[in-house]
Each structure stands twice: as C-alpha cells, then as structure tokens.
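User: Please predict the structure of the protein below. I'd like the answer in structure-token form so I can feed it into my own downstream comparison script.

Assistant: Understood. Taking the following sequence of 372 residues as input:
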Amino acid sequence: MGLFRAPLEFLLLLLLLLGGSSGSFSHTLFYKYLVVSEPNEGLPQFITAGYLDDQIFTYYDSQKKKKVPKVSWIEKVEKEDPDYWTEGSKVLKATQQVLEADLRNVQKRYKQNRGFHTWQVAYGCELRGNRTKEGYSQYGYNGRTFLTFDKENLRWLSPEPQAQITKRNWDANTRWSQRNKWYLEEECIEWLEKYLSYRKEMVPRTETPVVTMSKMEVEDGMEMHICRIHGFYPREIDASWTRDGEVWLEDTFHGFVAPNADGTYHYWISIQIDPKERGRYRCHVEHDGLQDPLDLAITVPESNPRLFISIIVASIFLACVMLLAGILVFIRYRKDGYRAGTTRVDSPSQGQRKGLFPQDGVLNCQGFFFCC
C-alpha cells in the first residue's frame, strides 16, 4: 500500500512544476484541482491547493473535508471574513461532486470506464513588475491537456477530438467566457495583491543576498562565469550581467528563483565571455536587502568544470525526480491492471480558482466552472 500514498505528493508537485516562473519582479496566484477515479486510504479522491508564488497557502482534500491554512500569514483573512474557512470547505465539498461527475463523463468520451484516471484543473494569474497582467485556465485528463482557455479571443482550444463537444458548448457561451476573462485579469489580481499584503505584514523581514562568483573553461578559449545569489528575502530580485555599465543579454543564461529550506531564496545567472574582456563585465544585483545596488567584478578563481554542472543539476534535479516518479507510478498502475480513461470538462466562470487543468463543474460558489 505504500506505493499508493505516493501519487498524492507527486501529482501536486508535478502540477506545481508546470507553473514555474523565472521572472524577477513577478508574483503569481494559482489553484490546482485533482480528482482520481480510484482513491484509497493514502490517496484522496479529490484534492486542491492554492499557491502564492511557489508557496502552498491553502489545502483541502476529500478525506479531511476541511479547507486549512498552510502558512501563518493567510490566517489574517479571518479578521476580514470569519467564515472564510467554513464557507470555503462547503464550496469545495460541492465542487468535488461536480468534478467527480466530470471525470466520469470524460471517461465515457474515451470509452475508458475502468482503471485509474485523473482529472485536473488549473487556473491563475500573474502580476509582473511593469504592472502587466497574465491569466490562464486549463483542463487536463491523465496529465494531458484537454482544454485551454484563450482569454484574448474568448474561445477554448483543444488537441483532443473527445473535447470538441465541450469546446463547442463553451465557445457558444460568450457571457461565461467574458466572466472568465474578467476574473483572470481583474478579480484574481485583486486577491493576489491582497494575499501579498497579508504575507508582507506577517513576514516583514529582509535578508541580504550573498553573491559569489565561479568560473569554468569552455571550448575555443572562452570562459563561463556564474554569479550565484543566495540567502535573500523577499523573493523579488533583479540580477543581470552588465558590460561597460549596460545590461548585456548575449550569451547569458538565467536560473529560476527557487526557495531554500529556511524560507530564503537562491538564484543564478551565467555568461560566456572572452577572458581578455573580463574587466568589462559585472554581476549587477538589486534587492530590498541591499542599501545600494551591487556590482561585482569578475574574479579569477581556480577553474572548476564541475561547479556549473552541479548548479544546473541542482536546479533541475527536483523536476526530473518528480517527473520520473510520476511516470513510474503511472506505469505501476497500468501494470496492476488499470486502464486509461477520460473525463469531460466544464468551463470556469468567476471563481477564485486558477489552474492548468480544468474539470467539468462549478469549482466555487461563484460558478467558475460551467458544466457540459
């Protein structure tokens, strides 16, 4: 039975990885929903989680039947809405029923009434440093995209023939599509800014970034220099390579702003240069923990060809492990006699949820999802 406890964590982490971002001054709010056709003691039939940037802040599953906070700062919402958690639990309980029905419908579309299958919903929004906004909404079946919302043209896109019936129904409901667009571009952003303010009040600290340099030799006499920035908080940071005082993008590579175990973050940027021009380049860093921007000149430490490789491996190791584990778990299910199936999807309207894989049904009291 130990194997069956794994999919819950793997699927949540895999969903999170799909929403990764590398922007410096960018914040995201998104929600993930998952329904499985064959639950057990270690794997609830329905789970959902809310993410602010890369941090889970709310969670609910069909076994606990209670929406709960995952971080201390979200508890502040009770001061403005004492019924936030109880009402949210009721909504998610009703949502589960709708999404379970959606999964059964989609399985029928694929003629896969038996076996282990998943129905996923994901939607969210992003607020960038220049105040531009982005929003997305997707539905998925067994880890594959089923329907994606094109909010600019108010239509649904799908590569799956089995999704065409739902696509036509949703495309015809222009009022509902407009509601989706409004939610993703307006209401979601309002909640994002509100949650950011909660977090800032509860976690007002700043941690100064520590910047280090390393070098490795590359072919044709060129050098690769890596500027590592670690131990900083808050997450927002602006780091770039400059040449003669100007931002230089040629032959540069950027990592992802990623969390450390202690709640701080780390980041890296690299550049490939001619060693004769080392003096022209600087690693430029701006962060709230710094009184003034930092410009660090390239040093010439001992070459360590393995260092850059280790940095890259560390950055993608978690993603690879989660992906491989998810694949292995799915293969094990198939070997145990499970067969793939599909579900049917509904469209979102104005709910508070955002995700990558939507499901049939209403996910919240505001009717974010529209049944087929």
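That's the full token string. The first strand starts at residue 26 and ends at 36.
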